[in-house]
Automatic annotation (TrEMBL):
<protein>
    <recommendedName>
        <fullName>Osmotically-inducible protein Y</fullName>
    </recommendedName>
</protein>
<keyword id="KW-0677">Repeat</keyword>
<dbReference type="GO" id="GO:0042597">
    <property type="term" value="C:periplasmic space"/>
</dbReference>
<keyword id="KW-0574">Periplasm</keyword>
<feature type="signal peptide">
    <location>
        <begin position="1"/>
        <end position="26"/>
    </location>
</feature>
<dbReference type="InterPro" id="IPR051686">
    <property type="entry name" value="Lipoprotein_DolP"/>
</dbReference>
<dbReference type="InterPro" id="IPR007055">
    <property type="entry name" value="BON_dom"/>
</dbReference>
<keyword id="KW-0732">Signal</keyword>
<dbReference type="Pfam" id="PF04972">
    <property type="entry name" value="BON"/>
</dbReference>
<feature type="domain" description="BON">
    <location>
        <begin position="48"/>
        <end position="117"/>
    </location>
</feature>
<dbReference type="InterPro" id="IPR014004">
    <property type="entry name" value="Transpt-assoc_nodulatn_dom_bac"/>
</dbReference>
Length: 119
């Protein structure tokens, strides 16, 4: 019983941290206009990719029937790439749906999100 309670507390703490990080990134994104970033600070990633990744991860954590801890999320130029292992096709479809609903996501690539083989 103590293990289950500790697990719930850790999940709650992780969600709280993800939501806080999402808020900080959103504020930072609004505070730095794209046209004021000099060439020496330019990266291949738009400012919004980190925010998108954080938002997708936090939404996966609160989604029903999605094993968020087993899904890796990467974002490049608005394209979200999901990878990892899920139990069934319904979990994969749900993860793709959740990621696709996030503002700024242009496409979801789930080709590396595998479904466990039936036993």
């Amino acid at each position: 019983m103590k293990v289950a309670r500790i697990s719930r507390l850790l999940a709650t703490a992780a969600l709280s941290l993800a939501v806080t990080a999402t808020s900080v990134l959103a504020v930072a994104q609004q505070a730095i206009p794209r046209d004021t970033v000099g060439d020496k600070n330019k990266t291949s990633q738009p400012i919004g990719d980190a925010w998108i990744t954080t938002k997708v991860k936090s939404e996966l954590m609160v989604a029903d029937n999605v094993p968020a801890k087993d899904i890796e999320v990467e974002t490049t130029n608005g394209v979200v790439r999901l990878s990892g292992m899920v139990a069934d096709r319904a979990q994969k479809d749900k993860a793709v749906d959740v990621a696709g609903r996030i503002d700024g996501v242009t496409r979801v690539d789930a080709s590396a999100l595998m479904v466990q083989p039936a036993r």
